[in-house]
Amino acid sequence: MNKFVIYARKSTESEDRQVLSIDSQINELRAVAARHGIEVAYVLHESMSAKAPGRPIFNKLMEDVEAGKVAGILCWKLDRLARNPVDGGRIIWCIKSNNLRIFTPSQGYSAEEDNTILMYVEFGMAQKYIDDLGKNVRRGNKTKLEMGWLPGNAPLGYINKLDDHTIIPDSERFDLVRKMWDLLLTGAYSPQRIREVANKEWGFRSRKTKRMGGKPIAQSSIYRLFKNPFYYGVINRLSEGTRGHHHGSHQPMITEEEFWQAQRILGNPAPRPQTKEFAFTGLMRCGECDCMITAEEKVKKSGLRYIYYRCTKKKENIACSQKCSTVKQIEAQISETLNNISIPQSFVSWAIEQLQDVNQMESGDRTQIYITLQKTYNEVQAKLDRLLDLRLRDLITDEEFSKQKTHLLAEQSQLKEKMGDTEQRAENWMQKVEEAFDFAVHATYWFENGTLEEKRKVMTRLGSNFVLKDGKLNIQLGKMWELFAKAHDQLQRDIERLEPPNNGLHKEKITDFSSVISSWQGRGESNPR
User: pTM above 0.90?
Assistant: First the structure.
């Protein structure tokens, strides 16, 4: 029997993102059949990954081949048929024992052509690709967990932030999910009743996706929600290589106590995960091999406990020679950096008062700038109106109209952006300066006396790109803190020069202080991180 079959496959997983659609594959293969004078008996297609055996349509096709009902297969590439050694070996055996013939747009395979060695190579490459992909996914998941981020889709109430691969509260659903927890914690509402209230009374719907619209919360989902430690800041992973509980960097919705109270209400107070939390895991990288820095606690024979930070040394074929650093060494360096940006409260109170005066004086200038921008914006709008009138009266061509319209719209967009910047600058710069001053005054105290979480928050606000090498921690300061650090020594000298022994800063000396105040004027536009 010379029956030929078209087989097309495209999975929704990452290994097939760049593959032609099933319809496109079928169209290509019909052209291949016509080129070889092959009559296609029927077309098969499925949307499943081939990285493991078990595809039902493929298995039925191979059963027909082994039974002599199918003589040949047309596929777009060999990896459409198999990406695992079991299915690949089955196909090669059918070529040898059943005289199976396979055609792709670029190659034919059969026992007569004696090119099965090419099939071994192609199937081997497909399997290698899957193996490498799996390793990369596991490595990426492990790195995300070390940084405190959940690999995969965010739970209800949160969303995945795609630009930096973090997880943030869902502005539309976060408060509603928190209300579900509040109802459960009263002890008067069962999960089923909470689900009814959320769906029917609140109109709760999940986020819309490309494949489906928002749906009411399901019964299984409400129970999963109330058992998920993610909501109090812990990521629970069961996957091989990332198994265990990890401290999350996302914003918790509830406290740990509330979570365990909820478990008692549900009647399943599972044992609390025994996790050891460290303040700086997921924040630092090794300066030698660029791997993440992890932490561990060691107990000496004397019973004393020490916390060490060390390179994970996870990069293949790279030998890293970095040694451990104690938590005291790292905290001492962070404290030194914080001291370099610190300023006394006496200066802050006076400086903010003077900056408010400066802000008030400049508000008139900003208002005039805004009025000028608004006037120019209105003039551009009038030009657009006149341009449209000229086109309607056929006084200019479509090409002239389109060209001038594009130019005017671009100019109008720039003006609108500048107007927005002017308004935002007027509203926000003073607030940001006050927040930055407050951090500069209190950060050292918060860090040296705070909890692990507070230490972590201070460190993340201080800067980014924390690199540990040879026991030295390099911190890329935020723009505002870089300014504070550079001006720190001069600022201290100016304060000592202008501050009398008992009476504080003299307002009469504002002219002398102008050099100091100019260092901070306008800097509120920078992000104090």
Answer: no
